[in-house]
Amino acid sequence: MFKADSLSYHELDEKDNLSSFRRKFFVPKKPDGSDVIYFAGNSLGLQPKTVREYVEQELKDWEIFGVEGHYAAKNPWMPYHEYLTEQTAALIGAKPMEVVNMNTLTVNLHLMLVSFYRPTKERHKILIEGHAFPSDHYALQSQIRFHGFNPAESLLEIFPREGENYLRTEDILELIKKEGSSIALIMFAGVNYYTGQAFEMDKITKAGHEKGCVVGFDLAHAAGNLVMALHDWDIDFAVWCSYKYMNGGPGAIAGCFVHEKHALNFDLPQLWGWWGHDKVTRFLMQPKYVPIPGVERWQLSNPPILQLASLRASLDIFEEAGINNLREKSEKLTGYAEDLLKENLGDKAEIITPEDKNQRGCQLSIRIIGDGRRIHEKINSEGVICDWREPDVIRIAPTPLYNTFADVYGFVEIIKKIIDEE
Q1: What residues contact residue 60 under an 8 Å CB cut-off, 6+ apart?
Q2: How far apart are CA 102 and CA 253, in angstroms?
Q3: 290 — phi, psi (to 5°)?
Q4: C-alpha angle 136-133-36 in degrees, rounded to nearest 5
Q5: DSSP code string of 171-239
Q6: How far is CA 84 from CA 12, 54, 308, in A?
Q7: Torsion over CA: 280, 285, 289, 295 (sign)
Q8: Contacts of 167 (CB under 8 A, 6+ apart)
Q9: pTM for this one?
Q10: 3-state secondary structure of 40
Q11: Burial (CB count within 10 angstroms: exposed 0-12, middle 13-18, buried 19+), residue 388
Q12: What is the CATH topology of the domain spanning 55-319?
């Protein structure tokens, strides 16, 4: 018998003030025409229905104006990235001059490391969570090697205690206190991609700064998911992609944050490109570089307008919904999923995401007892889109902009049936 919460999913969806936002997105369909249960927003967000209109406007202006579209388009392309600045800043808790949408995540990470990883013989280590996303490991290792150090000695990884699934904040802070004098950079995720743990970024930053460390974050799984205050937390820099919770589209343009105290420090080393040059004199084509005040000076080339248009469509929806409202619904969705999974799967599955709602976003990582990969394949065949992460985790992301409590109920019903059959 499938067990359900005392308050039905029908009642929960009826009480949901954000339920209308689902209609703003295209939801993939099953062969019978009904909606799939889409729990993969932590890999690729769904397409806002307004994206086509936003992108087609730029295609039309390109058709009509050609190069003159940089100034004559309905939304002139020269300043187009600026149209997204205030919304992006509001979403991550920053000042507008601290954020810019540009490049891709790992490109932005390398640009940040050029400026903020300045190792010395005495202080050359980078602290990272041991199970960080592989691309972050690759970028950090390559930068360590570039500076002539050995990753085996300079990359300091922290792992959960034996028998535990995620890191304790006190262990992170204790390691910073112990090793801080040798740490040049602390580089954590905002949310760990595998466990779904949301790190206490404010505490980590404070502890790092007390030991003289630079502190940066990869917000790939945090942007559009958590309520953040990057400026007030005094974080030095952050990077993120925009194709997950931010629904910018496959391979969407990424984002970058540099705190005001650094964004106005023109002595900070960085790589230069012409889109970071002073806007007023950029087209005088002079060889002397004059940087833009703020994070925009880390731009290298003119941005892809079609990608910006796609992301802009989603940011307009975020602005309408409000990140605080989305976070409130997220906690309810994830809590509902957790309760139903525990009640119905019992000891047949383990949720390795923290129970504390303040230490997770809208993701649950489920470790199935037995052949989890086969269970995942069967779940997908039943019309659920979620992902598998090696070695043994099914990740679900009940995303508040377009997922419902009915989605959660339906997923648990499906996975229970499959596991019972196994």
Answers
A1: none
A2: 6
A3: -120, 105
A4: 135
A5: HHHHHHHHHGGGEEEEEEESB-TTT-BBP-HHHHHHHHHHTT-EEEEE-TTTTTTS---TTTTT--EEE
A6: 33, 13, 8
A7: positive
A8: 129, 158, 159, 160, 197, 199
A9: 0.95
A10: strand
A11: middle
A12: Aspartate Aminotransferase; domain 2 (3.40.640)
What residues form DSSP beta bridges with 239? 218, 256
Q: Three-state DSSP class for 384? A: strand
Residue ranges per structural domain of the chain: 9-35+323-421, 55-319
C-beta separation of 295 from 100 below 8 A: yes
Separation CA 349–CA 345 (nearest Å): 6
Amino acid type, 329 = K
Cα(385)–Cα(390) distance, integer angstroms:
17
Tens of pLDDT, residue by residue, the chain (422 residues): 455 555 689 999 999 999 999 999 999 999 999 999 999 999 999 999 999 999 999 999 999 999 999 999 999 999 999 999 999 999 999 999 999 999 999 999 999 999 999 999 999 999 999 999 999 999 999 999 999 999 999 999 999 999 999 999 999 999 999 999 999 999 999 999 999 999 999 999 999 999 999 999 999 999 999 999 999 999 999 999 999 999 999 999 999 999 999 999 999 999 999 999 999 999 999 999 999 999 999 999 999 999 999 999 999 999 999 999 999 999 999 999 999 999 999 999 999 999 999 999 999 999 998 889 999 999 999 999 999 999 999 999 999 999 999 999 999 999 999 999 87
- Consecutive H or E run containing 91: helix 85-92
Give yes or no on whether 9-35+323-421 and 55-319 have one common fold.
no
- In angstroms, rounded to a whole number, what is the distance separating the alpha carbons of residues 190 and 91? 14
CA–CA gap between residue 158 and residue 137 (Å, rounded): 13
φ, ψ (nearest 5 deg) of residue 323: -65, -30
Residue 328 DSSP symbol: H
Contact 205/180 with Cβ under 8 angstroms?
Answer: no
Q: Which CATH superfamily is domain 9-35+323-421 in?
A: Aspartate Aminotransferase, domain 1 (3.90.1150.10)
CA distance 274 to 358: 41
